[in-house]
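Hey, quick one: can you model this chain's 3D structure?
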Amino acid sequence: MDAMPLGTDRTKKKRTELAHFLRSRRAALSPEDVGLATAARRARVGLRREEVAVLAGVSASWYAWLEQGRPIKVSDGILDAISRALRFDERERVHLYRLADANPPLPLGSEELPDDGLFQRIVDTQLLGPSCVIDRYWDVLAVNEGAAELLRLGREGNDNFLTSLFRGSHGERYLNRPQLARRMAARFRLQSSYGADDPRYEEIAGELAGSDPRFAELWERHEVEEFAPVTVEVDHPEEGRVPFVLFTMDLDEAARTRLLVYLPPGAAGPVSAWS
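Sure thing. Here's the predicted structure for all 275 residues.
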C-alpha cells in the first residue's frame, strides 16, 4: 500500500478516530462470533489483529498500520472487506467510510420506506408554505395542498421533481426557472455520485437529456452543488411574483427521503440573505 501525506490536523484526528473505532469493534467480537475455532483460553477478549486480517483478506502488518492510524490508502473494496470481517451493520459501515475519507456508500440493506401515510402527515403539518417529500431519485412521495395547487407537484404527471422541473407544468410555475434548473441539475449530479453503482440515476439523467436539450447542456457541464436553501420565484395566480426560500431537510441518514419546504416571505427572513 502507498503512503499518503500526513495532511491536516483534521485528517490526523479522523485517522485516530478510525484506529479507535476498529480496535473497539474488534474487542467486541469473539472468535466464535466470526466462526473461528480456538484451541485454548485467551488472555484477552476479542479478536486478534491477525484474525481480522485473515477474515478481510489483507496482510496482518497492513491491518496493524490501519489500527495504528498510519496515513495509508484504503480502497472501497478493503473497507467493505473489513466491514464484513468485523460484522458491521450499515450505520457502522458508513461511519467507517467517513473516517477513512472515502465516499460514503448507499445502504445495502432493505429499501423499504415508512408508510407513505407518514410522509403525507409530515407535509400536511407544514402550514407556512408548499411542501413535499421526495425519494433519492426525486420521485414525489407526498405533497401538501400548497405544493399541489401552486406548484402542480404530484399532479398532471409531475411525479418526479427533477423531470417535471424541466418538462412539466411544475417547472412552468417558476419565474426564475433557468437559474433553479441549473442548481437542481447540479444537486442531482452530486447525489448521483453517492450512488455511482446505481443505474437508476444514469437512466433518469439519460432519458431527460435525450428529451430536453436544456438539461442535456447542464448535465454536460458536470457541475455539483450541495443541498442548501435557495430563493425561488413563483408565479402566484393571485399575488403575481412571490419569492420563497426552498429549504431541504434529509429525513434519514442515507438521504433516501427529503422534505422540501417553500418558506414564504416573512417566515424565511430577508430573501436577500439567501443565494
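One thing worth noting: The longest strand covers residues 240-250.
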